[in-house]
Write a structure and sequence with these properties.
The protein is mostly beta strands. The chain has two helices and 26 strands. The chain is 11% helix and 38% strand. A hairpin with a 5-residue loop joins β25 and β26. The longest helix has 25 residues.
Length: 325
């Protein structure tokens, strides 16, 4: 009975702690920011101040503090000093001051807002809003795409656009950098694009709105492209050999291509089976273990190895001449 009460009290206190944590965190929310007006008109500019004030939501908790931060072209975020950067909203004039202090450079200015409340200890980071700025028509650019390259077949990855002076209108892909690029359906307008299950070499580019010409938010002849970023896809290796072995015996597995320099073969359960750097698998106890082979490109393949127990023999191990046992 006492044990039951201890467990019940432990669960009760855990639930109370969870609830208090949620209540504390709620003091710093909602925490969202947005340009005052419809994008893309009010978050773009061509040598002027057509952008508008960044307006923030009001968190539910009393006594919260605010800290705005900005980043230029994907760099590290910098605190915006008081009083401009410590209000609920961030004024249009203060955005202009940021651009001026940054040498009037064209590119992407990213803003976030941090909300803190000392009494509850909560902290909340807002969504990111982007200001796309071109000091003149000559400085309009589609920006630079970057990401991980190469990757293994079937990978999921994200490519990132930085330095663009306009909103992303769409992403496009092609098998080669000089091939025909085709719009990717549903690729969105974010400064990042995520691909999934990539099985062939693919090149990407972004079509970016020209803030100094054409119609804002619409695809037209004045829009500009980002740099092209190509992803090389390496094939997955294969594993050959017999995936069964008896306890105390060995079986040889062989991975295709060149093996990784360090730990090319690993076992998920060394209590069942061990594997050497050359792929020799030793049965330790009955059961199954997943053997992973990694090649020099960093790509991996797995195979399940079954370890069977040794058979047993019963009976009388002695017999006379002419008799049986």
């Amino acid at each position: 009975m006492k044990k039951f009460l201890r467990i019940s009290l432990f669960i009760a206190f855990a639930l109370i702690g969870l609830c208090l944590s949620k209540i504390a965190n709620a003091q710093c929310t909602p925490n969202t920011i947005a340009f005052n007006g419809n994008q893309p008109i009010y978050n773009t500019a061509c040598g002027n101040t057509s952008y508008q004030t960044i307006v923030g939501s009001t968190p539910t908790g009393p006594g919260v503090t605010y800290q705005y931060k900005y980043s230029f072209n994907g760099g590290a975020y910098t605190n915006i000093s008081a009083p401009a950067g410590t209000g609920r909203d961030f004024a249009k004039a203060d955005i202009t001051a940021i651009i001026t202090a940054n040498g009037n450079l064209s590119g992407t200015y990213s803003f976030i807002r941090i909300v803190n409340q000392a009494s509850s200890g909560c902290t909340s980071t807002s969504n990111t809003v982007y200001l796309y700025y071109a000091s003149s028509a000559a400085s309009v650019t589609g920006g630079t795409l970057s990401g991980t390259n190469p990757v293994c077949s079937g990978s999921t990855g994200t490519i990132t656009l930085t330095g663009n002076t306009g909103n992303v209108l769409q992403y496009e892909s092609s098998p080669t950098s000089t091939g025909t690029f085709v719009a990717i359906p549903g690729s969105g307008s974010s400064n990042t694009y995520t691909y999934s299950n990539l099985t062939a070499n693919t090149c990407y580019r972004a079509l970016v709105d020209n803030v100094c010409g054409g119609t804002a938010g619409s695809i037209d002849a004045s829009d500009v492209y980002s740099s092209v970023f190509c992803v090389t896809v390496n094939p997955l290796p294969t594993i050959s050999g017999t995936p069964t072995v008896c306890v105390g015996s060995t079986t040889q597995l062989t991975g295709s291509g060149t093996a990784a320099a360090t730990n090319p073969y690993t076992s998920s359960n060394t209590a069942v089976a061990t594997v050497s750097n050359t792929g020799s698998v030793t049965g330790v106890s009955a059961g199954s273990s997943t053997i992973t082979y990694t090649n020099s490109n960093g790509c991996s393949e797995t195979v399940s190895v079954t370890v069977n127990a040794k058979p047993t023999i019963s009976g009388t191990p002695t017999v006379c001449v002419g008799s049986t046992t």
